């Protein structure tokens, strides 16, 4: 039986498998409730000092199917609860109990084999004070409610995670030098943009040409945004900008879906029920592939531009590579660092009032970033090794920057030793896959990205697959190398030095592209439904397929596109509006998570995990992200890049030329 027929048979089985009913739906009410919050607003307004505490509650449980060693179980832990409790209410309830009842209801610490608290040194002293003051009270209050409201005889251990208060001494301490710095920078940027725009319209010719006016003028930055690249390479692959827009929007939508599992919801059984459907399991598994698409695009553009520059100017110098690195830093750092600072400010921003979900949304992020934000500054936040990261989406920027530096090193070797390009790229394509396979085998990891609601509430920070496979640059580097290979093939084909129609390897790859991609997309649900011992050959082989099919499909599509005339879709993706939106992709990617956190903070009650509410959240996030992304591009991203480029990059280049 030919290989293609076997692949098609497998696809048919998988398609039919998707069409069957879900593997089970968790539609019943969860008792005791995983999330239960007292009335946050009433607690803080009616009582003084209005103390409200977020509590982790641990129950003893003999059965924990979420820890299955052979299957991915997407459910919440039934023995880990997340409650928000008003101290005044607890004091009234416990005050009605006699001493013997209080002693009976108190539960000492229960030892469990999973992480239920986020360790943070920055809040250790504050939490210790709250725990010593209210720890026993909340412990008794929780168990009293368990018996009274849910008729449960089993007692639970409670630990305070965070408390908020109306005490002016506490709230005033939140407004510190970081908050002032963030506000001053914001005012300076807006003031400079307004001032430069006025001067650009009304000033004399000499003043208009000043670099500060040129950099901050909104009119000129709008022209930069809407300017169309006329280079030959862009005419061939300009559709990538439009593609970026759709991938970016997809990332925003996925993050909205993940919020349903990451923050307290009114009915967690809805999230559990959704994740029982095979189609949903397969869609969530594509989160890994979207990252690979972005990395492939980086590799394609890097190699295609390098090969063109090398051909146009054979006498390149090390300054060429250094400029590429500096140029990239100037583009990335200002926007990234400003919103990183915003995360460190958190709820102390003017106009931000903490809501019931405020701790989960902004306060926890603020505390983590103040403790671990230095990793983001150094672009190494992807190497978390089991700690909750600051500025969650920053891991990609760290990994991308590391891979970019590695790719520049590869280009430097190619420049010095041109004949090494083919064997070196092949070896570099294999090495990350070998590393990932060895890690998967040694640690007994899953073959696909495991979406477990039990881990999602910690933003998957303690999920081994994430910090061993998903985030490290040395494991995902195969995608940037694949992109570089595609970029090299583009250059050689366009120069007439390569005819892919004569390649037997390309003919085989072209035939199996669609079957492999479909199998890669449809197969993740099998690892939720069936038991696959880990490690095993099945898991290892599927892990190789899963990690590579997205990058492989992206490269094969790119090769097909540059060998054919653009159709309606590609012309639309390369149009001026899409190209302009594509230029906003970086700012949108950086700011959308802080924006999403503020939106969650403003929710008046626990989040509603319904299609309507999540859909509305998605729409608001996409519209607001691109609206604010436009402002950030005009006021922050372009002005700072133009200034840094002028005062550092251009001046250093002029000094080198004078020295020569």
UniProtKB/TrEMBL annotation:
Coiled coil: none annotated. Residues 1-22 form the signal peptide. Keywords: Membrane, Signal, Transmembrane, Transmembrane helix. The keyword Transmembrane applies. GO terms for molecular function: acyltransferase activity, transferring groups other than amino-acyl groups. The keyword Transmembrane applies. It comes from the Eukaryota. Pfam families: Acyl_transf_3. The chain crosses the membrane at residues 177-199, 245-266, 286-307, 328-349, 401-418, 425-445, 465-491, 512-532, 544-562, 583-600, 612-636. Residues 238-627 form the Acyltransferase domain. This is Acyltransferase 3 domain-containing protein. It comes from Aedes albopictus (Asian tiger mosquito).
């Amino acid at each position: 039986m030919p290989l293609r027929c076997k692949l098609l048979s497998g696809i048919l089985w998988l398609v039919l498998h998707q069409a069957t009913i879900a593997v089970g739906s968790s539609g019943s009410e969860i008792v005791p409730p995983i999330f239960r919050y007292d009335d946050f607003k009433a607690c803080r307004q009616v009582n003084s000092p209005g103390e409200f505490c977020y509590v982790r509650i641990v129950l003893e449980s003999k059965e924990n199917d979420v820890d299955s060693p052979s299957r991915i179980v997407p459910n919440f832990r039934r023995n880990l609860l997340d409650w928000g409790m008003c101290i005044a209410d607890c004091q009234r309830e416990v005050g009605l109990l006699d001493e013997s009842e209080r002693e009976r209801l108190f539960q000492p610490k229960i030892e469990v084999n999973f992480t239920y608290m986020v360790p943070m040194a920055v809040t250790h002293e504050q939490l210790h004070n709250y725990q010593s003051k209210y720890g026993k009270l909340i412990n008794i209050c929780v168990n009293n409610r368990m018996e009274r409201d849910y008729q449960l005889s089993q007692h639970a251990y409670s630990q305070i995670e965070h408390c908020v208060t109306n005490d002016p001494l506490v709230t005033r301490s939140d407004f510190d030098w970081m908050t002032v710095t963030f506000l001053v920078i914001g005012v300076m940027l807006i003031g400079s943009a307004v001032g430069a725009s006025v001067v650009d319209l009304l000033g004399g010719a000499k003043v208009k040409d000043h670099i500060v006016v040129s950099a901050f003028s909104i009119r000129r930055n709008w022209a930069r945004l809407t300017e169309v690249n006329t280079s030959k390479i862009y005419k061939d692959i300009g559709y990538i900008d439009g593609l970026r827009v759709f991938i970016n929007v997809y990332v925003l939508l996925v993050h909205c879906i993940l919020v349903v599992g990451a923050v307290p919801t009114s009915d967690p059984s809805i999230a559990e029920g959704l994740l029982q459907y095979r189609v949903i399991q397969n869609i969530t598994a594509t989160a890994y592939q979207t990252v690979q698409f972005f990395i492939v695009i980086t590799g394609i553009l890097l190699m295609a531009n390098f090969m063109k520059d090398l051909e146009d100017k054979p006498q390149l110098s090390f300054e060429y590579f250094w400029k590429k690195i500096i140029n990239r830093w100037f583009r990335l750092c200002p926007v990234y660092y400003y919103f990183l600072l915003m995360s460190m400010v958190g709820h102390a921003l003017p106009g931000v009032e903490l809501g019931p979900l405020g701790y989960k949304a902004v306060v926890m992020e603020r505390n983590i970033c103040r403790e671990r934000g230095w990793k983001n500054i150094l672009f190494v936040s992807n190497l978390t090794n089991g700690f909750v990261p600051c500025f969650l989406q920053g891991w990609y920027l760290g990994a991308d920057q590391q891979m970019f530096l590695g790719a520049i090193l590869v280009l430097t070797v190619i420049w010095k030793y041109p004949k090494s390009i083919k064997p070196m790229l092949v070896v570099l394509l294999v090495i990350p896959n070998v590393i990932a396979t060895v890690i998967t085998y040694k640690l007994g990891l899953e073959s696909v990205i495991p979406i477990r609601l039990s881990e999602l509430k910690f933003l998957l920070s303690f999920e081994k697959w994430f910090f061993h496979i998903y985030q490290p640059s040395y494991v995902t580097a195969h995608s940037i190398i694949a992109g570089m290979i595609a970029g090299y093939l583009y250059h050689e084909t366009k120069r007439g030095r390569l005819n892919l129609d004569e390649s037997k390897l390309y003919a085989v790859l072209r035939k199996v592209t669609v079957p492999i991609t479909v199998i890669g997309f449809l197969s993740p649900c099998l690892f939720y439904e069936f038991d696959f011992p880990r490690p095993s050959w099945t898991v290892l082989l599927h892990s190789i397929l899963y990690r590579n099919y997205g990058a492989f499909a992206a490269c094969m599509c790119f090769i097909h596109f540059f060998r054919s005339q653009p159709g309606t879709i590609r012309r639309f993706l390369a149009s001026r509006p899409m190209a302009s939106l594509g230029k906003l992709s970086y700012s949108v990617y950086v700011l959308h998570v802080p924006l999403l956190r503020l939106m969650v903070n403003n929710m008046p009650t626990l989040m509603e995990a319904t299609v309507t509410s999540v859909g509305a959240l998605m729409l608001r996030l996409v519209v607001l992200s691109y609206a604010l992304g436009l402002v950030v591009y005009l006021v922050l991203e372009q002005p700072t890049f133009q200034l840094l480029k002028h005062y550092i990059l251009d001046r250093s280049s002029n000094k080198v030329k004078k020295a020569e």
